[in-house]
Task: inverse folding
């Protein structure tokens, strides 16, 4: 687990992918990063708390905007994304480094598949002879570039559905794991709630039952309230999610208790997003300090959920965070920030609209927002 500096420092903000890592004043139109050594240091370790956390565009912009050295492919997963973005935007040292890695690096297949998913064909098609020479005979590969080159393995057969011909009533009688999955494919079935309690005692069925609760939505609330009252109930986690999504003010104490439980888990930063949406939907303004604290979590994947909830509960408090979000590492945060941008932020909106490193959805949203503010 990476060690995180305080978010009040430049390095700590960069580690978390926060906008303040690049801009001292979130409303400023120009970069003011003062500690270039911190910017260089952030490439030496993978500071994402989880692999789903985005850093590629954020780090690529650091290299471009502050004229930093193009990083190496160590750490691999983090810097591969940044190098791919740089290469796609024509930074030749990044292009050369990635091409060279495909020719001689140990994880060349991952690099090549990343380039094929991110770059236009003409930027990677010339690597075909290298790939053919390096491929291990018998290895099955899917997707690009293998499909484009005619080297992809046959498509995997569709998921087997051994009970597809059974009626819903028959499936409820069988109640095997396959039966629960088949029921989920057909949509919500309230009758399943009557037997979910007994089914939950079989661990192999928990994931299917969690999906069932999600499909049943508000109809599962009475059952969920019963399950959360039992601390050791196998479906308690799914029940809390049901109450966060569909419960009312009477369920707020359960949501807060789950929040506290997550806070007490060392180095655990996942699962707050559903709770944040729940307190916002219920209108629990007392949760604002909790949401502000979560903004600084290195698990940036959930950050948009925190910002969305904060904006619902207290738009004034959310204002500075929305401004900072225009430079965030997560595209979902940038998108939300763009949607709420003001006329004073037209300069940043124009930068996002015109930045080839930016995602298509954020660029389109920025263009739309410029025309409406």
Result:
């Amino acid at each position: 687990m990476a060690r995180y500096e305080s978010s009040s420092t430049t390095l700590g903000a960069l580690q978390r992918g926060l906008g303040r890592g690049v801009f001292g004043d979130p409303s400023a139109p120009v970069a003011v990063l003062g500690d270039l050594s911190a910017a260089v240091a952030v490439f030496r370790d993978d500071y994402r708390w989880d692999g789903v956390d985005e850093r590629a565009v954020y780090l690529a912009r650091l290299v471009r905007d502050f004229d930093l050295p193009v990083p190496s492919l160590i750490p691999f997963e983090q810097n591969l994304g940044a190098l791919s973005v740089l290469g796609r935007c024509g930074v030749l040292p990044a292009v050369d480094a990635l091409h060279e890695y495909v020719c001689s690096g140990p994880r060349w297949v991952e690099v090549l598949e990343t380039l094929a998913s991110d770059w236009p064909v003409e930027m990677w098609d010339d690597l075909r002879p290298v790939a053919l020479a390096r491929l291990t005979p018998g290895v099955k590969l899917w997707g690009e570039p293998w499909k484009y080159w005619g080297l992809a393995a046959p498509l995997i057969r569709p998921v087997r559905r051994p009970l597809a011909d059974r009626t819903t009533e028959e499936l409820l009688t069988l109640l095997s794991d396959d039966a629960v999955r088949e029921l989920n494919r057909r949509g919500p079935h309230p009758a399943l709630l009557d037997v979910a309690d007994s089914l939950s005692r079989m661990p192999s069925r928990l994931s299917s039952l969690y999906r069932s609760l999600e499909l049943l939505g508000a109809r599962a609330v009475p059952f969920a309230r019963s399950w959360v009252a039992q601390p050791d109930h196998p479906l308690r986690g799914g029940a809390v999610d049901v109450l966060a999504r569909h419960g009312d003010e009477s369920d707020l104490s359960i949501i807060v208790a789950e929040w506290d439980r997550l806070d007490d888990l060392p180095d655990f930063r996942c699962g707050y997003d559903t709770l944040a949406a729940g307190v916002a939907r219920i209108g629990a303004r007392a949760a604002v300090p909790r949401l502000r604290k979560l903004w600084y979590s290195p698990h940036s994947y959930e950050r948009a959920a925190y910002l969305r909830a904060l904006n619902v509960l207290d738009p004034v408090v959310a204002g500075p965070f929305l401004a900072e979000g225009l430079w965030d590492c997560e595209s979902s945060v940038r998108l939300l920030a763009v949607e709420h941008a003001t006329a004073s932020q037209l300069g940043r909106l124009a930068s996002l609209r015109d930045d080839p490193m930016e995602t298509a959805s954020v660029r389109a949203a920025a263009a739309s927002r410029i025309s409406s503010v």
